[in-house]
Design goal:
- The protein has 144 residues and is α+β, with helices and mostly antiparallel strands.
- Helix content is 28%, strand content 33%.
- The protein has six helices and six strands, in the order E-H-E-H-E-E-E-H-H-E-H-H.
- The radius of gyration is 14 Å and the shape is globular.
- It binds a DNA duplex (12 and 12 nucleotides) through loops.
- InterPro entries: 5hmC_binding, EVE_domain, PUA-like_sf, THYN1-like_EVE.
Length: 144
DNA sequence: GCCAACGTTGGC
DNA sequence: GCCAACGTTGGC
């Protein structure tokens, strides 16, 4: 079981939008970066990740779950670009800011910190649990 | 709004 | 296959 982080600018696609589409989920489209695409290819239905608001907010705001394996991104004509489907699972009671993440020595290896431009990235289980705790969320609940 | 870091493109 | 030029991301 792997854990992930999905980054989105809230004025383009926010966690609120994500919640509105419900359990049907929605393709995580628009990714045009090989590294990010390759991580999506590794994802399996049922795996969970953080929903992170970049630019505005700069915080982890909720938990999402992968509902479909990688398939063609319908917003691109180019068959190279694929994406998974995700659905919103629960809110982070207290959003965890990038500032707080950077201030936590145990999170210094997070991809969010070491490669801030990667929009889809893996998260270690220890990192996942710790951020849940920082956000007031029981890690067991978040992990499903 | 700026700019550093990074990724991609295309000429050679 | 190299690398300069360019475009984009995202923190500040």
């Amino acid at each position: 079981m792997a854990f992930w982080l999905f980054k989105s600018e809230p004025f383009k696609w926010s966690f609120e939008h994500q919640k509105q589409v419900g359990d049907a989920g929605q393709q995580w489209d628009g990714v045009r970066n090989y590294q990010a695409r390759n991580f999506m290819r590794e994802m399996k239905p049922g795996e969970r990740g953080f929903f992170y608001h970049s630019n505005e907010g700069k915080e982890v705001v909720g938990i999402v779950e992968v509902t479909a394996t990688a398939h063609h991104d319908t917003t691109s004509d180019d068959p190279r670009w694929e994406c998974v489907d995700v659905k919103a699972v629960m809110d982070m009671p207290m959003p965890v800011t990038l500032e707080a993440i950077k201030a936590e020595p145990r999170l210094s290896e997070m991809v969010l910190v070491t490669n801030s431009r990667l929009s889809v990235q893996p998260v270690q289980m220890s990192e996942f649990k710790l951020i849940c705790e920082m956000g007031g969320l029981d890690p067991k609940k978040a992990m499903g």
